[in-house]
Design goal:
- With 393 residues, the chain is of the alpha+beta class.
- The chain has a single domain, classed as Beta-lactamase, CATH 3.40.710.
- It has 13 helices and 13 strands.
- It has helices at residues 8-15, 41-52, 80-88, 126-140, 165-168, 172-176, 196-202, 206-211, 227-241, 245-257, 282-293, 306-312, 381-391; strands at residues 59-66, 69-75, 121-122, 263-264, 278-280, 297-298, 301-302, 317-318, 327-328, 333-336, 344-347, 355-359, 364-370.
- An 8-stranded antiparallel sheet has the order 2-1-13-12-11-10-9-8, with helices on both faces.
- The two termini are 37 Å apart.
Length: 393
Amino acid sequence: MIRQLFSSAVALAWLAAPSLGAQPTSFTWPTATPSAVGLNSAVLDSLDAEITAGKYGNIDRMLVIRRGRIAMDKRYPRDYDKIYGDSSRAASSLNNSHDPTGPFNYFNPWWHPTYRRGTLHTLQSVSKTVASVVIGVAVTRGEFPALDTPILTYWDTTTVANLDDRKRRITIRHLLTMSGGFDWNESIPYSDPRNTAGALEASPDWVKFTIDRPMMREPGTQFNYSSGESALLAHIFFRATGVDIEEYAARHLFAPLGIANWHWKRTTSGAIDTEGGLYLEAADLARIWQLWLQGGRWNGKTIVSERWVRESVTPHIATSTRAGAPKYGYKWWLYSNPVKPDAFIWAGSGFGGQFPMAFPEQEMVVVFNAWNISGGPSLPLRAVQERLIRAAK
């Protein structure tokens, strides 16, 4: 989650339609009744009724795909001008008072939860997972370095502050597993001045702000959620490949999957916001999760290697010592399957309630979009996961 003033030049760049660089493959999801794909329609209908009644706050979309066919696709129109209109004009932790009409006013319906009030929904930190997917595509194509490459390979170290041996040992793999070891605290509310993301947002260059942070611990020893570490990936990707990560995604991920429309924010310095800036339509986001269910293959072609798919959703680090806490892969949240505890649900997680999930045991992809950003009710994720699994026959 990033909220920062954009320069006029960057803002103008946003208004341009994305250049695909490759024509997207034609694809339309086939549809089926829930029973035709072995789903208990009563479970889906009960979830739909609860969402419609407002039990879980501002849910915008519920999309359920099983065995490659859409079994349920429900949209829930919300009047965000009415819901957040007053908040959009009052300075707060989620409202950029310096640029109230801009993209980091999270209450402004022109920007959130959909781009220009259209169909592209903000993904927030699900962008981290998609950035990892793009890296996997580049690894598969032999165009990205080994994950154990030290990240300082891509910096002039004479310009890096707080340089020590621990920082020299940070690798790309550490960034992918949120274990870089930087002094970073993003575990408290964003309104708290101690939250490091606030200082990141106030900086003119997110990459420099992050790489200059002092170290807290040895890399690879502990999970520590950091949007800054994810922001570094845009810099590394360009330095390593010579291609902007958005352009690479357009050519080698979005086009093969038939994704023709997206919006991807850029930072004030012009870098792609790989920590939270991507907007996609839910059915397009589901294609990426379906790609993972299919072992990286789409229309008979390998987009990303099966080996990368397996490695990215292998638990590499614990997110917490709390019982039942998810594990973490390469920017993938891995929840234990409540019915089969030795299996995992492969998920993304984004501010406001963005939850794309793949259930490999059930051959199912589910996407929830929401915009619950002011407290109040929200989706009880674990309970919903269990209901969905038990609905699959």
